[in-house]
Design a protein that fits this description.
about 240 residues, mainly alpha, two-stranded antiparallel ribbon, 10 helices
Length: about 240
């Protein structure tokens, strides 16, 4: 081996040793962690936190929209309805569509993960106690005239005879259910869902517990919703008329 070849080999060894030493040097940044693409995220907590918590509450309660951590609601709605609503949204309300196929941000698989995760984390197989509830969606048109009577019978004690709110006891005061601004933000189905399953933040109550000994019937719920929505106006949110 000539002198030149020896020098080249020694230089190559030196470079290899330096590289090996740098790879193990303290403080050297490691490889960047692989970040999953948005459509690859399939963790329920992550998907819920990113897409649902802002409106429905961090843990499915105490949000501006209906509580999802409500076993009665989940049992009546079922995973298929929750998937459909998540995919398509609710036109005319603040509930957007999420299906990627319709211009949203979530895949069908991610929407299924959300629906199944709600049932797994917040559902209860015994929520209905063996009883058959009214249907999730109305099957017949509602009539506001008997609806007003049903409201007076089942709801007035907490919400006032005219629906404008009252003291519900235990220091709670309910807001108006007939305020045009409120009715502009909630869908007919949203009102029906609240009557069916109640609001967990106000203590457990649902279609079975508004009056002792008699549950609300499917038609009574449909008619009550019809009476409530009869208070909608064409221009909600406009300044109220000044009193003379």
């Amino acid at each position: 081996m000539n002198f030149r070849s020896l020098i080249i080999r020694l230089a190559a060894c030196a470079v290899a040793l330096v590289a090996a030493g740098c790879n193990g040097a303290p403080g050297k940044p490691g490889p960047e962690p692989e970040v999953p693409r948005p459509e690859q995220v399939l963790d329920f907590a992550t998907l819920y936190g990113q897409n649902c918590a802002a409106c429905h509450g961090e843990h499915g309660t105490n949000g501006a929209a209906i509580a999802l951590a409500n076993p009665t609601y989940l049992a009546i709605a079922g995973a298929s309805n929750i998937e459909r609503i998540t995919a398509n949204g609710v036109p005319g309300t603040a509930m957007p569509l999420f299906a990627k196929s319709k211009g949203g941000t979530l895949t069908d698989q991610q929407i299924a993960v959300l629906a199944e995760g709600m049932q797994k984390n917040w559902g209860n197989s015994g929520a209905l106690a063996g009883q058959t509830p009214p249907s999730y969606a109305a099957g017949t048109p509602g009539d506001p005239v008997p609806g007003q009577k049903a409201f007076a019978t089942y709801c007035a004690r907490c919400h006032g005879a005219d629906g404008t709110g009252a003291s519900a006891g235990n220091g709670l005061t309910t807001g108006s259910l007939v305020d045009p601004a409120y009715l502009a933000l909630v869908s007919d189905q949203g009102l029906r869902s609240i009557i069916l399953a109640g609001q967990t933040e106000q203590g457990p109550h649902d279609w079975r517990s508004y009056q002792t000994g008699h549950s609300l019937t499917d038609q009574e719920i449909t008619d009550t919703v019809a009476w409530l929505v009869s208070h909608r106006i064409a221009t909600p949110g406009q300044p109220y008329k000044q009193r003379p």
